[in-house]
Write a structure and sequence with these properties.
This protein is an alpha+beta fold. The protein contains eight helices and eleven strands. The longest helix has 17 residues, at 90-106. Residues 166-188 are annotated as: Disordered.
Length: 199
Amino acid sequence: MFDDIIHQLRGSTIFSKLDAQSGFWQLPLDPDTAKLTTFITPYGRFFMKRVPFGISSAPEIFMRTVSEILKGIDGVICYFDDTLCYSKTKEEHENLIAQVQRRLREASLQLNEAKCEYRKSEITFLGHVIDAKGCRPDPRKVEAIKDMPEPRDTTEIRRYLGMVRADSKRSESPGHQQAETCHGKPYKSQGKLSVLMSF
């Protein structure tokens, strides 16, 4: 997935990142689906009219909706609630931003301008810093991994390895392999002490 994104960005020099205002809440639920969100309070029964936060499929629904709205526009990548616009020249980028904003307005999708970043030569997207030279891991994420205290139990080991896996670009990267095994053996076949010592 990430390798495909990097391939698409090749040759780009200017970037913008868009953030939707309370993204999920902008998506209406149809009446039948809305009934499934009913909850009871001392004041009666209520249900959601819009996609609420906390529903496991909400990010995918939002991403699919935004992708459909922006379908056919080159230079746009939608990944859950992040939308990245990229171009090779400033002129191309101005046209791209205008086109994207027009489509979003037509779909009544509002942006959170305070969180949007426009016309940047370097931008952070999916935990990586992207610029004309390529991409590299976000230094803040790398530091967070480096500064993690030594794990004390299996849960903390999993948390650490989950961070390493999330920070890996490719599913076959060393971080991913490390997340599955320790010294080539599955977690369950090893004692906790062995795993902790390898940290």
